[in-house]
Design goal:
By secondary structure, this protein is an alpha+beta fold. It has two domains: 169 residues, no CATH class; 122 residues, Beta Barrel (Cyclophilin), CATH 2.40.100. It has a seven-stranded antiparallel sheet with strand order 7-6-9-4-1-14-11, with no helix packed on it. The chain has a seven-stranded mixed β-barrel with strand order 16-23-20-21-18-17-24. The longest helix has 21 residues. The mean pLDDT is 93.
Length: 319
């Protein structure tokens, strides 16, 4: 039996790439961490498939890919708020997120679009196959580094995954996730660069997600915030979730493909449990920030990890 499944890319989608937890321990070399934008949905997909949490998957944005199985078999799951169809045994089936499907030669998966959100994940049993960097299968598209030779999926290319045999069909029920409009943050390293009245305005007035959003960052508008000192600081290390304030006063939330250093003051840092919620907000969506303590942020982190560990027992059912 051939242990490799091959898939033909019939449509590449808007921004489809191989991702996992990211490229670790390389920022000192000028290589950003990259990795999935929504680690929760990524983990959920691998949990449903009984994979290791960091099993490489395909991340897509807004418009997804269309793929045809040209050899081998696959157990797969789509996570997110996504519209997709499958052609299995020549039958057109409307797809359901958070449940497994088994595809074989000539079957097709057509991921049309995300719904009121930005990112979704195609996870397969035992993962996709590609080249790696520092043990990671993430792709940094702007730098041409990582999996798939640093490129997003291309029309007509063939990609590979580990084959799997048909198993029970699982699905996740009662998962509440989307439409979050309160984003929790902790104080940033340069919050003291801003006047108290401007900090109050930052938290009390709504921001709007602009059309300028991608894996590098998300520009926020309709709530101008400016430091009382210079908006230029000495460049220093930055991380995913940092909220920088450039000269125009429209904050930028740094994404997974952020630069390794930056020279704008950082007013807050979004906690990782809420970063995934913010990056799913579509352009035009309004929200507010809420400051919490470091202890509350840690509590949220441990609560989410406990939820993920228990998800098979509480939410996963045989379909």
């Amino acid at each position: 039996m051939n242990n490799i499944t091959k898939l033909k890319v019939l449509r590449e989608g808007l921004m489809t790439s191989f991702q996992d937890f990211g490229i670790l321990s390389s920022q000192h070399l000028g290589i950003t961490t990259s990795g999935v934008m929504d680690d929760y949905l990524f983990k959920i997909g691998n949990i449903i498939l009984f994979n290791k949490l960091n099993t490489p998957s395909l991340e897509f944005a807004i418009i997804g890919p269309k793929l045809k199985i040209v050899s081998g078999n696959l157990n797969l799951v789509i996570t997110g708020n996504v519209s997709f169809n499958l052609i299995i045994n020549d039958k057109n089936i409307k797809g359901e997120c958070f449940r497994t499907y088994f595809l074989k030669k000539n079957d097709i998966i057509d991921i049309k679009s995300t719904i009121n959100s930005n990112y979704g994940y195609l996870c397969v049993k035992n993962g996709f196959l590609s080249n790696s960097i520092n043990g990671s299968y993430s792709t940094i598209i702007n730098a041409n580094i990582g999996a798939n030779k640093g490129k997003k999926l291309l029309f007509n290319q063939t990609i590979k995954a580990n084959s799997s045999i048909k198993s029970k069909s699982y699905k996740l029920e009662n998962l509440e996730y989307f439409n979050q409009n309160i984003i929790k943050v902790i104080k940033g390293p340069q919050m003291n660069y801003f006047k108290i009245k401007d900090i109050d305005k930052f938290f009390k007035k709504e921001f709007t997600i602009s059309k300028n959003l991608n894996r590098i960052g998300v520009r926020l508008i309709n709530n101008i915030i400016k430091p009382f000192t210079s908006y230029n600081i000495d460049s220093e290390g930055i991380i995913k979730g940092s909220v920088q304030v450039p000269g125009d006063g429209n904050p930028i939330v740094l994404g997974a493909d952020h630069p390794t250093i930056g020279g704008y003051p950082k007013i807050v840092t979004i906690i990782m449990d809420d970063f995934r919620k913010l990056i799913q907000l579509p352009a035009g969506k309004k929200f507010k920030f809420k400051e919490i303590s470091l202890e509350e942020a840690e509590e949220t982190y441990f609560k989410t990890n406990k939820h993920l560990k228990n998800i098979k027992d509480k939410f996963l059912v045989v379909d």
